[in-house]
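Subject: mismatched residue count in predicted assembly?

I count 464 residues in my input, but I want to confirm that the predicted structure covers every chain. Input:
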Amino acid sequence: MGNIKINDRDIVVPGETLAEGMDFVPGFGTYRDGENIIAKNLGLSSIRGKVIKLIPLAGRYYPKNGDVIIGRVQDIMLGGWMIGINCAYHSMLSMKEGTSEFIERGADLTQYFKIGDYVVTKVMNVTTQKLVDVTMKGPGLRKLQGGQVFAINSNKVPRVIGKNGSMIQAIKDATGCQITVGQNGFIWLKGEPAKEIIAREAIDIIEKNSHVSGLTEKIKGFLGNQVK
Amino acid sequence: MTYDKRFDGRKSFDELRPMEAKAGIIKSADGSGFFKIGKTEAIAAVYGPRTLHPRFLQDSSTGILRCHYNMMPFSGCGSRIRPGGNRRSKEISMVMKNALLPVLDLKAFPNSVVDVFVEYPQTDAGSRCAGITAASIALADAGITMTDLVCSVAVGRVDDKVAADLNYDEEAYEDGPVADIPIAMLPNKKTFTLLQMDGEIPKDMFMDALKMGLKVCDQIKELQVKALKDKYGEKK
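Triage response: the counts match. Full output below for your records.
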């Protein structure tokens, strides 16, 4: 008979034994060594029936097909744009995926995206060698005009969005800012300057306390105090 | 003449110097760690995984680990340490990399690098061990997949006694033979990832020293775990 060594939502460190015995199944962020299940990341434990997994608290963004991310145009290549996406690899936005307009041979690509522009893109494909292809074709994918972009840890993005977008909606409602959250941890804000600051503070609080439960209520309280 | 009382007043021969560990002390790094044992202090910062340049160093099957060991100019015991790498720091960087690599799996990050920078504001023997311990905290803090933590300590022999965590005075003991054995180990599997020796020691004392090392490493592991958990404070 196996026994669990930890509680649900405990902070665990690599090498920590989470459970003993073959009754449990190792999930994401864990591995089996002999009869034990051992953590291999720093994270929050999550026990779902027989499966024990980790929700990572740190680490770089890892691109996945279908993720909507915010990137920064870093270079203009012959066939498209190189986009920095806050991860170990760059991504490529090809001419074909960048715009649906006809681009003449030898045209100046800066008329579409300049170096330093921020764009909302979607990951189309990730190869085994981690060549990331992104596209601008899809609902909500666009060049970002104005506002500010800042980065948070990509593992905290689900907390910033909240269940069914509850958290981000609370911030939007209270501050009246437009907010786009990329899965890679880049966040774009646009609104009145004073309100932008409040929204950013709220997101900083979420990032710092992402492992705490009951955060949406706390943020609603914070926003209620700040926005009169 | 035997060595029967430790120079720095420690009660027993398996007692470590006072230790302190912290995680997340460098905000702009992806992960960082601090480890202090006696007067030896190590600060480790981890960056990455990130794209590796120059490209000829890239490995298309896995990410690589680079370690950088550096003593600050004022970190010795008086004389200025010339900044920049030297033969000693290059070797220690290499053994630190080899000590940390067995717990890492960077296969998910081909062509990338994880950089570990370890700096020493002050040193008093056992610096590579403190560095490995700090780097292990920093790697875990950076969210890198690790099968285990790595904890490291020096053991050895001073004259007729087997001792743990030698300080500089003990390493420089003149009235008898001394051996300094830096070890690093994985606390779960109880396997060694670093084993070096400087000095002379008979076989039975060597085995006793390793057994002592296995025992005292648990104290270091507990401190590493505490440092990482403390960063996130009280849960809920």
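Residues 193-208 of chain A form the longest helix (16 residues). Marking this ticket as 'not a bug'.
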